[in-house]
Design brief:
The structure is a homodimer. Chain A is about 50% helix and about 15% strand. Chain A has helices at about 5-25, 35-40, 45-60, 75-85, 95-100, 110-125, 180-190, 195-210, 215-230, 245-250, 255-265, 270-280, 330-350; strands spanning about 60-65, 70-75, 130, 140-150, 155-160, 165-170, 240, 285-290, 300-310, 315-325. In chain A, the strands form three sheets. Chain A has a five-stranded antiparallel sheet, with helices on both faces. A three-stranded antiparallel sheet of chain A has the order 4-5-6. In chain A, α1 (about 5-25) packs across α4 and α2 (about 35-40) packs across α3. The structure holds a DNA duplex (30 and 30 nucleotides).
DNA sequence: TATTAGCACTCAAGCTTACGGAGTGCTATT
DNA sequence: AATAGCACTCCGTAAGCTTGAGTGCTAATA
């Protein structure tokens, strides 16, 4: 049995890589040939292992921090590990049920779901949990309500089909009696319901123009509505982040500057939002390992995220950010499990309509 | 002129302390006797300065990190500095006008004011800006509106006199036609307006009981309203924090653990809220230096905060968190200036009513 | 021909030593 | 009371040394 079947040899190399990555994930220290021999039963000497490690390094799956140190997985190594070596676990039924219960009953509106979800992701992973909520302008209008606050102020309430609730105070240039306002509210509500919010703006103007003859005051409020309340530039998806403090435990306390850069990205909503939005481009699970993230500040972390949807339309992303050496298996299972639950909750929420 | 008037001597010691603190604030390094002689014109030799420094240390105003190092101000030293040495500057009129403009026109509701204010504090101080918004249960009800979302769901909108807007989705146990709901909405609105929100809950039940004979359905929704929407335990003052990332530049990159603890406090809303609430107990400017903060994690930072009010009632706090060696003069002026502006804005907002 | 044992080599990390500099406290002097 | 002078302390840094884990290569082996 001297000569090995090349397939077997290749297979063994894979298993070795897997062992190295696995060990590194647990310890965080470069892995040497001796440890492999000691702790994993490959039935060969350290010298042989070393030869194979050299091969793996030449192929780019491993990296030596410096000559005569053990090996550390490269991004490419992790990638292979994630893509093929890993048998994807799924959340145990009991575990999933547990999560479901945690959501409790108080998730009637979308914001609650978002908050609970980011908490859940963070506390179960011990990393940082993130959820990007649906963009308002992509949602359909479920209800529009004008509430008089004073002679010259109106509170505009916008409820989207997805359960997002937004409000905005409008300063009127001319006053409007309460009864007229509530009529207007009903009128607009009836005509605009079900429209995408991005179209509401132009539709308001349209309807208002038609009504202009009848009630000139409607014209002015309509213009203000369209301009201020439905100016959706500012209504990009909201970001919910939980467990930022965990980056201290997982950032490998490398150097200070790196940590600081990471913090800066995590603290700034717009930066993190744009990162997440990128992963939303294609539906489904996304894993970004180290430098696969475009932002250089994120080169030492990995992102596991998934899109969630409603009526077969992708409407948002959720996921976790952790160290590159995370237990991808568990994390993938977690993110997928939570996504599943969120999808179901959203569906249920809309069906109440 | 050998023998000095004791008053003059004391005065000179004060000025020396001031110089040490001033210098330390700029450089962050322990201050030695030589530097004082070189850069500040006290007209005496380093030996004399050393003697005085020893006195100041014995009195507890200065600390030596270790034998044969320069001196560093103690909390007590900063305290004296702040309390008496410091001539409080006020914001230049032009500067104040600049801030006022920054607030822009889009601050019609309270939340906008809070957000803008925390941003303002952070960006002008380069530290971390914080605002604690009024507690909802302490405010008066300005408007209550029920909006039908579906047969079994009602959106409850609560607008406080201070301009706080809260919403809550209510799941009804029995359905209610839209017209009846809007009548109920108007009825409650008329009767409850102006009441403190903390009383609204019991009042709802009261009014509902009276109406029970007429409309039994009102009873059930009223109970749900009182139980869910006006359960104000969860409505403690909201916290707005901006510029967390700045703690990296001011935390003197001491040791890692300290920074991590600080981060943890800053990240957790409830912790930071309770810290700020403490400073709210007595009205007016509050300066907490280092260990004067009860939380041990905050022992290396200082807090400059001020209460803001409406109708002579303290309703919230705003302030900054920075390094102990901050320029207290400028920071105090900043916090006071911003408070003044916020007070005025709040007054104006309520007057729209 | 794949594997192994053996060996020389490398490098990071930790420890010791040396030393310059900043700063002090004390004492004798003015 | 203020100062000059001096011995001393301690930090920080750099240089040298040792240790140990780990490597790559080569020659022997089954």
């Amino acid at each position: 049995m001297r000569t090995l079947d090349p397939k077997t040899a290749e297979d063994r190399k894979r298993r070795l890589l897997q062992a190295v990555i696995y060990h590194f994930m647990r310890t965080g220290k470069p892995v040497g040939s001796q440890v492999i021999v000691d702790k994993y039963n490959f039935g060969m000497s350290s010298a042989t292992v070393r030869n194979m490690l050299m091969d793996l390094e030449k192929e780019g799956f491993l990296i030596q921090p410096h000559t005569s140190a053990g090996r550390v997985p490269s991004d490419k190594g992790y990638r292979l590990y994630v893509d093929s070596l890993l048998e994807v676990q799924s959340l145990a039924a009991a575990e999933e049920e547990g999560i479901r219960k945690q959501y409790a009953a108080r998730t009637k509106e979308l914001e609650d779901v978002m908050i609970s979800t980011s908490r859940m992701l963070s506390s179960l992973s011990h990393y940082t949990g993130m959820v990007l909520s649906p963009r308002l302008d992509k949602s359909l209008l479920r209800r529009l309500q004008l509430v008089p606050l004073s002679n010259s102020q109106v509170l505009v309430i916008i409820v989207s089909q997805t359960g997002l609730i937004r409000h905005k105070v409008l300063q009127l240039s001319r006053s409007l009696p309460a009864e007229r306002l509530s009529m207007l509210s009903e009128m607009l509500n009836a005509r605009l319901r079900g429209l995408p919010l991005s179209e509401v703006r132009t539709q308001i103007l349209h309807h208002i123009e038609a009504a202009e003859q009848e009630h000139s005051e409607a014209f002015s409020i309509g213009r203000e509505l369209a301009r201020d309340a439905f100016d959706l530039k500012t209504t990009e998806g909201d970001l919910y982040v939980e467990g930022r403090e965990n980056i201290f435990s997982f950032s490998e306390l490398g150097d200070f500057g790196e940590l600081s850069g990471l913090l800066k990205v995590i603290e700034q909503k717009n930066l993190l939002t744009s990162v997440l939005e990128k992963t939303m481009k294609k539906e489904g699970l996304s894993i970004k390992i180290g430098a696969e993230n475009t932002r250089p500040e994120l080169r030492s972390v990995s992102l596991v995220s998934n899109t969630y949807k409603l009526n077969d339309h992708t409407i948002g992303v959720l996921g976790i950010m952790g160290p590159r050496r995370m237990e991808y298996g568990r994390m993938i299972a977690l993110v997928e499990g939570v996504t599943k639950i969120v999808n179901q909750m959203l569906e249920k929420m809309v069906s109440y309509e």
